[in-house]
């Protein structure tokens, strides 16, 4: 059942790429990928003594995870109001953005400057500049639908810098997510045969596996100074070439286990199932209320508010202790169980999906008046599509990203005499 559900979310995502900006399909797939496929591989390939094996039985894990993820998907697709994507919206967006090159360049400029500032601003402003630094991608999307002759050059610049930063920092999350968002917009405007999309998905899985197989070795070399300064990209490339030339090493038990460790968010959820309520009582909505409060109230009104990041909740509900400098989250699925148990957790996941559904439908509805707004969906849902964070991180990102988007739409006409 778990494998079938994961496969259904994959097929649904590929088909949804032709129908709308596939945010819902991507969320459903990512949850099934990390919380169903990952645990399937864990139960099949990892021995019980492995530190990253799931400490409960398959029946215990999947009897909670499958209904809860089905509930999330129902919430995502539950018919709400007349806020739906249509190709009329896309046509209006293309027409509206035809002469928006100047706006696109300003957004890219803000994003590039903020990419530097986010490293030096005080902690309280870091998230604000994190959102602003991603405006460079929104600017590229604007150019994608404009008549500008700079679109190819700036696309290569922005995504080239993203790739270089991913390699030099050994952090590939943003590169993967923004590449997927680009793919969404591309397939929506260019009708791609299903077989080509399936082949691209298979190639993407292989690339993820390939990168994962070298990431540990690369990070050790990077962090311990084994790579000469300025040669990070060349060293990373050499590792990739080495793996491709030696398939035995690429598909070794070590590489396969490392890939399972990375995608298996169910390991953490399984520890939550094992620990709660035997050693830690149900939170009964405490973390959800704290997450909403932390997202809505500014720090000066709530100086003791929870800081998104998940380390406190991870130890409390999983019973595991993180080493210094390590960050992990119990995931919304784990948090659902930690608060409400199996049945209540599934109901929470339905409500969780409904929140995303409502925001998405609202944006489609407002896009009738602000045609470019649909291109801001990747920024608004950037942290939402990942299944490995916690409720506070997700809800905080949604609230702050929607607020920043609203501020920018109001500020550009007033201060720059330009409409977004």
TrEMBL record:
Chain ranges passing through the membrane: 21-41, 61-81, 102-118, 124-145, 152-172, 192-211, 336-360
Keyword Membrane: yes
Keywords in alphabetical order: Membrane, Transmembrane, Transmembrane helix
Keyword Nucleus in record: no
UniProt-recorded name of the protein: Oligosaccharide repeat unit polymerase
Organism: Pontibacter qinzhouensis
Organism taxonomic ancestry: Bacteria, Pseudomonadati, Bacteroidota, Cytophagia, Cytophagales
């Amino acid at each position: 059942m778990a494998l079938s559900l994961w496969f259904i979310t994959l097929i649904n995502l590929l088909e949804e790429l032709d129908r709308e900006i596939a945010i819902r399909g991507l969320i459903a797939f990512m949850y099934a990928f990390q919380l169903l496929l990952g645990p399937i591989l864990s139960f099949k390939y990892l021995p019980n003594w492995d530190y990253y094996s799931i400490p409960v039985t398959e029946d215990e894990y999947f009897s909670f995870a499958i209904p809860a993820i089905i509930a999330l998907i129902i919430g995502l697709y539950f018919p709400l109001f007349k806020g739906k994507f249509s190709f009329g919206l896309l046509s209006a967006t293309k027409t509206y953005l035809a002469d928006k090159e100047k706006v696109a360049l300003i957004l890219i400029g803000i994003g590039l400057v903020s990419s530097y500032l986010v490293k030096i601003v005080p902690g309280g402003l870091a998230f604000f500049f994190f959102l602003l630094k991603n405006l460079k991608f929104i600017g590229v999307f604007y150019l994608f639908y404009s008549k500008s002759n700079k679109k190819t050059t700036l696309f290569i610049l922005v995504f080239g810098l993203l790739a270089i930063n991913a390699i030099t920092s050994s952090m590939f999350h943003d590169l993967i997510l923004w590449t997927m968002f680009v793919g969404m917009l591309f397939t929506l405007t260019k009708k791609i045969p299903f077989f080509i999309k399936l082949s691209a998905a298979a190639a993407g899985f292989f690339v993820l596996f390939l990168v994962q197989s070298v990431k540990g070795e690369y990070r050790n070399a990077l962090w311990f100074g084994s790579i000469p300064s300025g040669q990070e990209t060349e060293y990373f490339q050499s590792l990739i070439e080495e793996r491709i030339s030696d398939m035995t090493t690429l598909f070794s038990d070590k590489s396969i286990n490392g890939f399972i460790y990375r995608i298996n968010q169910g390991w953490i959820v399984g520890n939550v199932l094992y620990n709660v309520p035997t050693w830690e009582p149900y939170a009964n909505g405490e973390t959800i209320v704290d997450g909403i409060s932390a997202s809505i109230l500014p720090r000066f009104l709530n100086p003791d508010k929870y800081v998104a990041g998940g380390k406190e909740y991870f130890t409390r509900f999983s019973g595991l202790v993180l080493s210094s400098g390590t960050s992990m989250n119990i995931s919304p699925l784990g948090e659902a169980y930690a608060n409400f148990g199996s049945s209540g957790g599934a109901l929470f996941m339905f409500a969780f999906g409904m929140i995303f559904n409502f925001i998405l439908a609202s944006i489609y509805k407002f896009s009738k008046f602000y045609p470019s707004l649909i291109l801001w969906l990747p920024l608004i849902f950037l942290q939402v599509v990942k299944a490995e964070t916690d409720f506070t991180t997700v809800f905080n990102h949604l609230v702050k990203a929607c607020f920043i988007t609203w501020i920018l739409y109001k500020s550009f006409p007033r201060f720059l005499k330009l409409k977004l």
